[in-house]
Specification:
The structure holds 2 protein chains of 2 kinds. Chain A is of the alpha+beta class. Chain A is 51% helix and 14% strand. In chain A, strand 2 (138-140) and strand 3 (143-152) form a beta hairpin. In chain A, helix 1 (10-26) packs antiparallel against helix 3 (41-53) and helix 4 packs antiparallel against helix 8 (255-284). Chain B has helices at residues 5-18, 26-35, 57-66, 78-91, 94-106, 222-237, 247-257, 264-291, 299-322, 347-354, 364-375; strands spanning 111-114, 130-133, 140-147, 157-163, 174-180, 186-191, 200-210, 215-216. The longest helix of chain B is centred in the last third of the chain and has 28 residues, at 264-291. Classes of the chains: A alpha+beta, B alpha+beta. Chain A: GO terms for molecular function: acyl-CoA dehydrogenase activity; flavin adenine dinucleotide binding.
Chain lengths: 360, 395
Amino acid sequence: MSDTNLLYTEVEDDLRATVRKLLTDRCDPVVVTALYDGDRSLVDGLWKALAAELGLAGLLVPEDRGGAGASALEAAVVLEELGRTVAPVPFLTSAVIATLVLRDSDGPLLGQLASGEKTAALLVPLSTAPHGALPTVTVADGRLTGTVTSIAGAIEADTLLVFADGAVFSVAAADATVTPVVSLDMTRQLADVRLDGIAGELVVADAEQAVQDALVAGAALLASEQVGLARWCLEETVTYLKERKQFGRAVGGFQAIKHRLADLAIGVESATAAARYAAATLAAGDEDAVVASSVAQAYVSDLAVLAAEEAVQLHAGIGMTWEHPAHLYLKRAKADQIALGTAGAHRARLAGLVDLPTPQ
Amino acid sequence: MTIDEQGLRRRIEEFLAAHDPATTERLEFLRARYNAGLAWVHFPEGHGGLGLPQAWQPAVDARFEAAGAPDNNKKANGIGLGMAAPTILRFGTEEQKQRFLRPLWTGEEIWCQLFSEPGAGSDLAALGTRAVREAASGDWIVNGQKVWTSGAHLAQFAILVARTDPDLPKHQGITYFLADMTDPGVDVRPLRQITGEAEFNEVFLTDVRVPDIQRLGEVGQGWAVANATLSNERVAIGGSPVRENGMIGVVAKAWRDHPELRTPELHDRLLRLWVEAEVSRLTGQRVRQKLALGQPGAEGAALKVTFARIAQELSGLELELRGEQSLRYSDWAMVRPDHVDFTGRDAGYRYLRAKGNSIEGGTSEILRNIMAERVLGLPSEPRVDKDVPWKDLAK
Ligand SMILES: Cc1cc2nc3c(=O)[nH]c(=O)nc-3n(C[C@H](O)[C@H](O)[C@H](O)COP(=O)(O)OP(=O)(O)OC[C@H]3O[C@@H](n4cnc5c(N)ncnc54)[C@H](O)[C@@H]3O)c2cc1C
């Protein structure tokens, strides 16, 4: 039995370079910071460029359904780059989670998501763990009623996927009441959505498994976003502390600081391994994918928070300011830690999966 | 004559009988309380105190609060009360104490701390703000830039360190001043921080005139004076007097209020932190008892390192506990708050603000160096710049 490959392929390196170039050109931290003051002008154009022009929205969709027929490994590389720039685009929510919910559906929606023509969001609170309870929306005569709070990707979506009565319905976002909420992470701003008996179209009949699989995959791939974020924090801090001088020396030359950064580098490498394994098992349809997803979340989400906290601490005064981008990463990291289940929730999940039962 | 606790209690009651908080005008009340020695009882008589143990102060404050006495705006004046006042008391002339301590305590004059500069944070002694003596008047003319100055937008006065002799090594050419923030040469610009608000500022000083009578300590003695301020700052920030005070109180309440959010994992972490907070409270009590015998030294460093770590872990834990609710934030609007609040607003704010706790008043790394070198006597890092004239240092 050969080991699962945890390295990047040449194709993935090329993909990364393309995405990085676009984000360097079009996702400036100053404009990202403006999201916190309500200026969302960056979002639409950037998402269009990534989704349609680069064709990233269709990565996980088979070619015969209008997608690129790539795998979770490529999607993971994209997410690393999006994490690295805290890019405010609904890739995870539309091109990963909503797309995977629809993977076995017939209709045209999957192809429309793949082409970037449409953008969708599954109506669950961002904090929902893959094995957690799903919100209750009631359905009567094809009409949907209910309120779901703290949804990521809903502001950017034109189509909402609603889980109700074991099935998934699609509704036009314009028919729902979508209320943006002031979010801890404004680079993934949440919304509350109210459905007042609006008409939904049945898109997946027996959907419970599909929804859960999509959330497992979302959690697995979120780890790659967190890796990208953590790596930025590490690299940015190392660069800064090579430059910053106090006591007549580069601060990064103090051994206490070197050890801190070496520890963080060890953590980022470990996180990369965990995230790659989660993506690889997902890509291969490996039966270990569920364990791998929870391992990745249990490890990487805390590591990303640590990396962002270290970035702030080691930039010190300037790291506490609005004008330095470190805070964008801290807020994203902390929100990501809660997204799709906290590390604690994933450890509790693993207890059952790897037969280390909770004490009675 | 020394008075016992009984005597102190009697004085308070007599004072309250003579100055009904309900009918006495606010400032009149505060000034009278200061004059009666009931402001900070550990200060000397004549300067708002009675020369009593500092440990008695919380009971005094509690009694005044219960009687409905007016507040001396202490939330806005932490730097004045915690740092400027003890430094003025220790190094000030009699005239300086008379001039500054009472309006400081009553909150009539709010203080800020003009220490850090863009190039001199941890290495404060490298500071480049210049103070030059004007021959004719004897006044000092100050030019330079300070940064991360909390509450400068509220302050009438500042404790300021500036370089008076660039030919000396960096620690020796510094002098300590009490500067008037209303001087036309002081330009205070808001500096927004990660919480969205601008609690701190950039302060540009252009030909700011400071009369020599507002110099605190000798010319060139500023480093020693500043160190006294910093030691007081650390004691002021670290260690709380009562159980479940500060961040642990807030998070414990969240736990009690939300049974539906509890998990065994969070429970274990919360209890660990509860124990740490309690032990830190006891450590603070012990440090204050030691301090009653003298001025703070490195003790505050240890307290502050622990305080910051616990506050950060607790506020991070609170967000995990609150889960979905934590993904929402109160308001990112840029405001200039009228006081500093470590535990206010919402859980997200607490989490972000607590990040500053291990930076302001000396970073936790620098405080560990102080512990290692001053308390444990471990050898210091090679000091390449210690004996070089400041003007010859690489900038
Ligand atoms: C919320 C807040 C409020 C503040 N309020 C005030 C105020 O009112 N007045 C004021 O004067 N200042 C204030 N400050 C500034 C504060 O004192 C400085 O930020 C702090 O001293 C660190 O300086 P720096 O930011 O330049 O970091 P640097 O000195 O550049 O340090 C960068 C990093 O290197 C580390 N480091 C530096 N030297 C060493 C070493 N020898 N060994 C190991 N590690 C080292 C530091 O710990 C830090 O992590 C405030 C800061 C904050 C965040």
